[in-house]
Each structure stands twice: as C-alpha cells, then as structure tokens.
Amino acid sequence: MKKIEAIIFDFDGTLAELTIDFDDMKKRLKALGSAFLDPLPEKDVPALEWVDFIADCLAEEDPDLGKEFHTRCRFLIISMEVEAARHGKLFPFTCDILNGLRNSGIKTGIITRNTASAVRELVPEINNLSGCFLSREDVQNVKPHPEHLFKALEVIGVNPENALMVGDHPMDIETGKRAGAMTAGVATGRMSVEELRKAEPDFVAANCAELMQVLENEGLVVNNL
Question: What is the pTM of this model?
C-alpha cells in the first residue's frame, strides 16, 4: 500500500447526511420529460446523465427545445438540492477528521456532483474545511469521470497514486479507480458495507470516523484530532 498524502472526500452521504430523494427527483424529471418527448426512451443512468441524454435526443430535431428542456431540468434539480440541504447537517465527526488530517500534514479535498449553492446552504464555510472544494459547476465532467478527482488533486498538488478517494457510493469507488487512486467506501449513505464491498475498494468502513481508525491501525495516517 502506497503512502497516503491526500484524502479526497465525497460530500453527501460521506461528510454530511444524505437528504436528497433521488427516486423522487427522477420521477419529477420524467414527468417533465414527458411534456417534451412521449414516449421517453429508456436510459438507466443517474439524474444528471439522464437529463443530458434526453436533451441530446430532443436537440437532434430541435436544438432550442433541447436547451429549454436541459435548463428547466437543471432548475428543478437545483431547487430540490437546495431544499434538501436546508434539512441536512454535517456528521458529528466531519470537522474533527478534516482538522485532524490537516494537523497531521495530510491534504484534503471535497468533490461532489451536487450544486455549489446547495452545499453552501448547508455549510457556508465549505471552502475552509479542506484544501479544495469542487462542485459539478467546477468541472466539465463530474464523477465517476476521473477529471473531477484529477482536478482536485491538481489543486492540492498530489499525485493520484498517493491519494485516497472516499465516498458512500460505488460511483465514488469507480472514480478513484479510474484515476489510479486508492479507494474507500463508507456506509453512511444508502449503500451497506456489503454492497460497497462488491465494488472492491481498498477499504470499507461504517463511517469516516471508523475509516480513520482503520487507516491509523494500518499506519497509513496519523489523525491528530
């Protein structure tokens, strides 16, 4: 196992309570999509990618219609994200972990597919919590595309092979693997430890606090809380 010089965290479900109802979001997006295109083609992908797919389908016949659909969907998504953030909160261990890692010399970053306005609704000081915060607006390709992680590591000046990507979803583990980083799954979102293990991360834990203990026991970090 290579030395860990940086840990990049997902946000929702990893550092903060996951309050967004993605099933309801997809339901509302499909209802909106039906007003533009009926029947809707099937595409089993996350919400952001689904919106892009339907917008591209519409744009083949009418580029302006595709843009209108994309804009209306983004407004719907952002409104749901901001509303969910108003009811969310950081996990009790989040600030202690980030501060402890900083004190021990390990760099940190936060990347999220969420909109920056929603994250700042929950944590106005998000930019001060770690060395880098990148929302979906900050990159052209969001995770699981490795660009999201690559850009964060570029900002803090650490190579992927010396970084650990931590998240609550197999998508986060895929992101880390595609970037050549070490990976860890935490079961504080909607995925259990058993489900996360199927994605074959390097580490799995019930939450970030337990993960830090695992990493300390392995001699990979010293978390000065």
Answer: 0.92
Q: What Rg value do the Cα atoms of the chain yield, rounded?
A: 18
> Using an 8 Å Cβ cutoff, are 163 and 6 in contact?
yes
Tell me the CA distances in angstroms from 2 to 18, 32, 167, 219, one per residue in order.
Answer: 31, 48, 19, 11
Residue 225 has pLDDT above 60, yes or no: no
H-helix or E-strand spanning residue 7: strand 6-9
Q: Which of 137, 153, 159, 171 is nearest to 10 (CA)?
A: 171
Task: Look at phi and psi of residue 22 and say left if phi exceeds 0, alpha if psi is from -120 to 50, else beta.
Answer: alpha
Q: What is the pLDDT of residues 147-197, one digit of tens each?
A: 999 999 999 999 999 999 999 999 999 999 999 999 999 999 999 999 999
For residue 70, which of 40, 42, 41, 36 has the smallest C-alpha distance?
A: 36
Token reading at 72: 């209306």
**Residue-level pLDDT at 70:** 96
221 torsion bin: left (phi>0), alpha (psi -120 to 50), beta (else) = beta
